[in-house]
């Protein structure tokens, strides 16, 4: 995967694993489009790294927000002339809760939806909107690669802890999606671990 002079779209890039990925790809010469809910942190990262980074405020659980951010970042790419080389949908939340609490009350459905909409639908939404801009680039390497998608899963996909039912479901589904994306002939990596190394919140 060539990094230099290609743009990488990273959701959740204002903190933790996403931010560590931003720093790494930037250090290797990549252009970075950070999508995140947290504008304060996102803008701080851009001020620190400077050139070759841009911040696009977005809530990945809101389809109009993702769509608007992708349209804006595509305009940025037209200016920089550095094609999309990868999508890393790293924005994710834990929001733990058991299906019934100690008073036998079911968890509010909104709590489950929040996690699934960010960790699963938001991931697929970002990939789907970026893909048309990746598949139309001109390959620069002999293998014809036009870009990569790196899914961010978790050990919870295989061995969730009590209270992680929605989180584990979202991360397990991410692993399944990886197989489907491969069948559709996209090149997909899977980041399932790396806890603590990047100081993430989850
Ligand atoms: N921390 C870990 O040990 C660990 C382990 C395995 C997998 N992961 C995965 O790594 C990813 C990042 O985790 P982290 O620990 O670095 O978390 P973090 O809380 O440090 O960072 C998450 C980032 O996502 C952003 N975000 C949250 N909701 C959003 C939304 N709706 N729209 C846009 N941005 C949003 C936050 O503002 C934040 O910048 C997650 O997908 C998580 O499941 C983390």
Give an overview of the whole structure.
Helices cover 45% and strands 15% of the residues. It has 202 residues and is of the alpha/beta class. It has a single domain, classed as 3-Layer(aba) Sandwich (Rossmann fold), CATH 3.40.50.720. It has a six-stranded parallel sheet, sandwiched between helices. The longest helix has 27 residues, at 109-135. It is globular, with a radius of gyration of 17 Å. The two termini are 28 Å apart. The mean pLDDT is 91. Bound molecules: nicotinamide-adenine-dinucleotide.
Write a brief caption for the model.
With 202 residues, the protein is an alpha/beta fold.
How many domains?
1
- The helix count comes to 6
What's the gyration radius in Å? Answer: 17 Å
Characterize the main sheet. 6 strands, parallel
How many DSSP E strands?
Answer: 6
Distance separating the two termini? 28 Å
Give the structural class.
Answer: alpha/beta
What pattern of helices and strands is seen along the backbone?
Answer: EHEHEHEHEHHE
CATH architecture: 3-Layer(aba) Sandwich
Order of the strands making up the biggest sheet: 3-2-1-4-5-6
Q: Which stretches are poorly predicted, pLDDT < 50 over at least 5 residues?
A: none
Question: Bound small molecules, which ones?
Answer: nicotinamide-adenine-dinucleotide
Class in CATH? Answer: Alpha Beta
**Arithmetic mean of pLDDT:** 91
How much of the sequence is in beta strands?
15-25%
> Which range best describes the helical content: under 10%, 10-25%, 25-40%, 40-55%, 55-70% or over 70%?
40-55%
The H-level CATH homologous superfamily, spelled out, is NAD(P)-binding Rossmann-like Domain
CATH topology (fold) name: Rossmann fold
Any idea what the shape is? Answer: globular
